[in-house]
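Protein Record: Sequence and Backbone Structure Tokens
======================================================
Scope: a single protein chain, as residues and as a discrete description of its fold.
Tokens: labelled as protein backbone structure tokens, with as many entries as the chain has residues.
Position: the record begins directly beneath this header, with no further notes in between.
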Amino acid sequence: MDKKVLIADDEPNILILMEQALEKLEEDHNIELIMANNGKDALKIIIDEKPNLVFLDIMMPKMSGLDVCQAVKKDLNLADIYIVILTAKGQEFDRRDGLAKGADLYMTKPFRPKEVLNKSLEILGLV
């Protein structure tokens, strides 16, 4: 079974940057990258596709990343889906809130693409 990574962000530039940062996953490891630009679509993709790894922005239209995270981890009980909150909200209480809602990791923007790639390889067990 091929692995999948979902990138959910309403900012087109971030989606492009993330796709570029993670294209090595596609090329070297045959991992499918899936994009969503709002929380509702992200949740539907998570339910339908069961990605191994999800990068979620907090502030998105239709449904926040935190609500998506809580729905996945607590309501749907999909604990095996690794969720990284990737957000500009870098305050400690934001981080605690994200982790309390079930996020496995909290990263702040701006991010270093190499760091995102290395973290993804590690999470997906490819290093």
About this structure: The first strand starts at residue 4 and ends at 8. Helices lie at 12-29, 39-49, 65-75, 92-100, 113-123. The chain is about 45% helix and 20% strand. The CA atoms of residues 28 and 72 lie 28 Å apart.
